[in-house]
Amino acid sequence: MTIRTYTKTILLTALITLSLGGFLLHVRIHPVSQNQANFIPVISGLLSILVIPLLFSFKKTVEYGYVLNGILVIIGTIGMAHFSIVHWPAPATAGSIIFKTMLMDILILWSKFFVGKALFDLEFFGYDPHKAKKGTTYRYPNLGWWVVHLVAISLVYFLGNLLWRHL
Amino acid sequence: MKKFKLFTLNWWILHLLAISFFLYLGHAVRFVRGLTG
Fold it and tell me: What is the mean pLDDT of chain B?
């Protein structure tokens, strides 16, 4: 086994254990029977445990894994931020915002994104310690591209929530 | 050029689908204060 294969296996294991932990946590705390919105973490969890590691395993499908992983993290971030806004702590102090909203869960979720980023970068940029990081920040596959998508998707979701009401 | 046009077409289709999906998601997800589910 090469160091590359070994590191890839470690990262894939991290991705699966993180996703499995999140999936089981959601199943325990938010049963689907209570709110249909709870289908989102169930579907996202299953995709993260079964499909994304498979996509990351083959060079041809790494990019699909990278994009799907990032989009699922964005969906989770938006969903949990939405939940936190509805259940906003009162009084809203710095402490209550940190400890009584879903901020910490969102931060844990982003570790899954960075594991995916490491898997992607390992496949495409390799280990060369002297290789310079190239590319414009806001262009794919760099982090700025994800920030743009996080903002854009949040905006579209917000508009859907605000303007498209149930009659 | 043909490849670029195909890429552009696919880009638009993907983004229109994504916008429709996230608009629907925002519409469909409703949390009620007091209910933890």
Answer: 89
Comparing CA positions, the residue from A9, A4, A10, A82 lying closest to residue A40 is A82
Q: Is the peptide bond before A31 cis (omega within 30 degrees of 0)?
A: no
pLDDT of residue A166: 65
Cα B13 to chain centroid distance, Å, stands at 10
Q: What angle do CA A166, A42, A70 make, to 5 degrees?
A: 90
- Determine the pLDDT at residue B34: 67
The percent of residues in chain B predicted with pLDDT above 90, rounded, is 70
Chain B residues touching residue A29 (CB < 8 angstroms): 36
Query: What is the pTM for the complete model shown?
Result: 0.93
The closest CB to that of B37, out of A38, A75, A158, belongs to A38
Alpha carbon of A137: minimum distance to chain B alpha carbons (Å): 20
Q: Do B37 and A31 touch (CB under 8 A)?
A: yes
| Predicted pLDDT at A149 | 98
Residues of B in contact with A153 (CB under 8 A): 18, 22
Residues of chain A with pLDDT under 70: 166-167
Is the CB of residue B24 less than 8 Å away from at least one CB of chain A?
yes
Comparing CB atoms, the residue among B26, B31, B32 nearest residue A160 is B26
Burial of A112 (0-12, 13-18, 19+ CB in 10 A): buried
